[in-house]
Automatic annotation (TrEMBL):
Domain PEP-utilising enzyme mobile: 369-438
Keyword set includes Hydrolase: no
Pathway info: Carbohydrate biosynthesis; gluconeogenesis
Cofactor(s) the protein needs: Mg(2+)
Protein name: Phosphoenolpyruvate synthase
Top-level taxon of origin: Bacteria
EC number: 2.7.9.2
Annotated function: Catalyzes the phosphorylation of pyruvate to phosphoenolpyruvate.
GO molecular function: pyruvate, water dikinase activity
InterPro entries assigned to the protein according to its UniProt record, in alphabetical order: ATP_grasp_subdomain_1, PEP-util_enz_mobile_dom, PEP_synth, PEP_util_AS, PEP_util_C, PEP_util_CS, Phosphohistidine_dom_sf, PPDK_AMP/ATP-bd
Pfam families in alphabetical order: PEP-utilizers, PEP-utilizers_C, PPDK_N
Organism: Candidatus Dehalogenimonas loeffleri
SUPFAM superfamilies: Glutathione synthetase ATP-binding domain-like, Phosphoenolpyruvate/pyruvate domain, Phosphohistidine domain
Protein family membership: Belongs to the PEP-utilizing enzyme family.
Length: 754
């Protein structure tokens, strides 16, 4: 390209060496076009045009003045200054000569719908990534609309997140220019992503291809689960496939699109006859693979490719190097823009929505689908609202709190222990919750998720010797989670089922309503046993504490207040004392087992060897005898369980399951819900690790199964690796960690074989 660039160039005129002129995106589109890779045609308004506009209009000094002395950590000040800079750009007329050139170029490419995309000139630098900082405008139609969209791209160089990021990276605001590619829109029948390296094992001989119906935004947003193909580059040949049902697709509204509309897309139902089908033929998949191999060879490195198919033709809309594949122990990259609130990372994921502040559980009906539930803390009474919420933020609590545990099970982002969420956030305010990092941002924030999407699908397919179980409590999730590659339920919590009943067991006995209680408990347990059959479902008998029992109807009559309920009348101590209540629970278990003998029992909080002996005796007296199809496990969560492990095994248990939350609490003497001690509360502490090793190795030596069902494996991959090396037989995790845990275990097992 000429040394003094024109204001407008076509894709075929530029290459990967022209980033200073057309930005990273523009240079890449030109490079692929020159390499005869099928790219939708288009032109680029160069950075030179942007610089001339800024300098000749006198905007540089005015924008500098608006940003002078700005504290980018002050989100309100940042937003105000950035908006002022953007308005200065939008209120300044584009030079008429340039505007006319844009109109003429748009007409030359055949008009119609186009994408107007930002391409910063500092993109793809090794020391900084500007990807996603500026705006893209889709479905733009009409010459005047294209001119305005170009100017909006220029203005987006001063979005608050872009100003903040440049400040953090010490970039001069006026040394970073912006080019604007204008590209014909592809009306995608199918679309997807290709990785020319297998992202789990970094196997360069494999290609991974994702396919969905409709526009690629449906995949990028995480809304649609794609078909997944693994292709061997030799051939190429398809070596595995996973076909996903798709009931709806995102399509473009090609009629009546107004000039100002961005992304005028809508969801359309996929015809029932196509929902279960493979979305592309094998021949088309192999054509994609061949094209991906060609692109990889051209660039000389593994590529992450976005593609779309229209009228049988395949187009490449983006290709970027796979520079760093995410390790299993890593979480999603942190968002680089100002936070408004921070707390403990309790459940991973990213979600945006309006704030609903709930100070009393009687108000939970105000929480609608997609809202962000904000509360002082949550209790079982909040669960119906939690199921509707897109994310949860609380003032109090740690990662073992009720909000954290339920959020992980529901698979929604959660940040706890913020201290001031209910006072700082405003009703109806749009926020974004980043559960992986414990951060809350103002407004809606997005990030690209294709890599995690394909990695998640592949992780789920991994086979391991060590079993992967799941922790569950919500009956309506049973079928959904059972469809995953999981070996059973390692912890079925009774507490949520009892909370739904809402009445104290002894209150029901007093009223002669034992049958009603048994039936409701049966109805709560049955969906799990049915969904997972014949895989085992390990039901943990009720582990309510006295304060939680008191909250049930009639509870204050039967429960004395305790100074420290966590260490009070709970677990096995209660079963051998309040035998009539325990018998109702046993009866419900027996009824489920008549049709589903995969239901087992786990006894929590066993303080003494005598307690487990007497509890097992009650089970046997009521007809639940240990045998080939009925196992009794004991929760291992008290130091006494560790010291006397052989004696507890001698008492007649088939397996142990480590409750790492309580075990850590009692080994370290820390209230697990104390916000002030969250940094000290760590299952990786030397003393806790010593206890875990004794538990697992003793169980292995004595020939019984050993599992773990606390939150530790869901949080610390390195701990899971240790457990596998000691010989643990299963790991039970929250649903969101099934695939990740399989990958961690597979790598740990591979190390043992070496």
């Amino acid at each position: 390209m000429q040394k003094t660039p024109e204001a407008i160039v076509w894709f075929e005129q530029v290459s990967k060496n022209d980033i200073p002129v057309v930005g990273g995106k523009g240079a890449n589109l030109g490079e692929m076009t020159s390499a005869k890779i099928p790219v939708p045609p288009g032109f680029i308004v160069t950075a030179n045009a942007y610089y001339e506009f800024i300098h000749e209009s006198g905007l540089q000094d005015r924008i500098k003045a608006s940003l002078k002395g700005l504290d980018v950590e002050d989100s309100k000040a940042l937003s105000a200054a950035a908006n002022e800079a953007k308005q200065l750009i939008m209120n300044t007329p584009m030079p008429p000569v340039l505007a006319e050139k844009i109109r003429e170029s748009y007409k030359s490419m055949g008009e119609g719908l186009v994408a107007v995309r930002s391409s910063a000139t500092a993109e793809d630098l090794p020391e900084a990534s500007f990807a996603g900082q500026q705006s893209t405008y889709l479905n733009i139609e009409g010459a005047d609309a294209v001119v305005k969209a170009v100017q909006k791209c220029w203005a987006s160089l001063f979005e608050p997140r872009a100003v903040y990021y440049r400040n953090e990276q010490n970039f001069d605001h006026f040394q970073v220019g912006i080019a604007v590619p204008v590209q014909r829109m592809v009306q995608s029948v199918t679309s997807g992503v290709i990785f020319t390296i297998e992202p789990i094992t970094s196997d360069a001989s494999k290609i991974v291809i994702e396919v969905i119906y409709g526009l690629g935004e449906g995949l990028v947003s995480g809304e649609i689960t794609p078909d997944l193909f693994i292709v061997d580059k030799a051939g190429p040949t398809i070596i595995s496939r996973r076909i996903s049902r798709q009931s709806r697709r995102l399509i473009r509204n090609t009629t009546g699109v107004e000039n100002e509309v961005e992304g005028a897309n809508y969801w359309q139902s996929v015809p029932p006859s196509k929902q279960e089908l493979q979305k592309m033929s094998d021949e088309e998949v192999l054509k994609l693979a061949e094209l991906a191999i060609h692109i990889e060879k051209h660039y000389g490195s593994p590529q992450d490719i976005e593609w779309a198919q229209e009228n049988g033709d395949i187009f490449i809309v983006q290709s970027r190097p796979v520079t760093a594949l995410k390790e299993s122990s890593e979480v999603e990259p942190e968002i680089k823009q100002p936070i408004i609130l921070a707390g403990a990372a309790a459940s991973p994921g990213l979600a945006s929505g309006p704030v609903k502040i709930i100070l009393d559980p009687n108000e939970i009906n105000r929480v609608l689908s997609g809202d962000i539930l904000v509360a002082e803390m949550t209790t079982p009474d909040f669960v119906p609202a939690m199921k509707r919420a897109a994310a949860i933020v609380t003032n109090r609590g740690g990662r073992t709190s009720h909000a954290a545990i339920v959020s992980r099970e529901l698979g929604i982002p959660c940040v706890v222990g913020t201290g001031e969420a209910t006072s700082l956030l405003k009703e109806g305010q749009i926020i974004t919750v980043d559960g992986a990092h414990g951060k809350v941002y103002n407004g809606k924030v997005t990030r690209r998720v294709q890599t995690s999407s394909v990695v998640s699908l592949m992780r789920d397919a991994i086979v391991t010797k060590t079993k992967v179980y799941v922790n569950l409590a919500q009956p309506e999730l049973a079928d959904q989670v059972a469809a995953r590659n999981v070996d059973g339920v390692g912890l079925l919590r009774a507490e949520f089922i009892v909370s739904a009943i809402g009445k104290h067991p002894n209150f029901m006995i007093e009223q002669g309503r034992q049958e009603e209680f048994i039936q409701k408990l049966y109805d709560g347990i049955l969906p799990f046993a049915k969904a997972f059959s014949p895989r085992p479902v390990v039901y943990r008998t009720t582990d309510f504490k006295t304060n939680e029992y008191r909250e049930l109807e009639g509870g204050d009559k039967y429960e004395l207040p305790e100074e420290n309920p966590m260490l009070g009348y709970r677990g096995a101590s209660r079963y051998i004392t309040d035998i009539e209540s325990f018998k109702m629970e046993i009866e419900a278990i027996k009824r489920v087992r008549k049709d589903y003998p995969n239901l087992w029992v786990m006894i929590p909080f066993v303080r003494t060897v005598d307690e487990i002996k007497r509890t097992i005796a009650i089970l046997e007296e009521e007809g639940l005898k240990r045998g080939p199809d009925f196992k009794v496990w004991m929760m291992t969560e008290i130091p006494a369980n560790i010291f006397l492990m052989d004696k507890f095994i001698d008492a007649g248990i088939d397996g142990i399951s480590i409750g790492s939350n309580d075990l850590t609490q009692l080994v370290l003497g820390i209230d697990r819900d104390s916000e002030k001690l969250q940094e000290t509360f760590d299952e990786r502490n030397e003393a806790v690790m010593a206890a875990l090793e004794i538990a697992v190795t003793t169980a292995k030596r004595r020939g019984i199964t050993a599992s773990i069902c606390g939150q530790a494996p869901s949080v610390y991959p390195e701990l899971t690796e240790k457990l596998v090396s000691w010989g643990i037989t299963s790991v039970s995790v929250s649903p969101d960690m099934i695939g990740t845990t399989r990958e961690i275990i597979a790598k740990a097992e591979a190390k043992q074989k070496k």
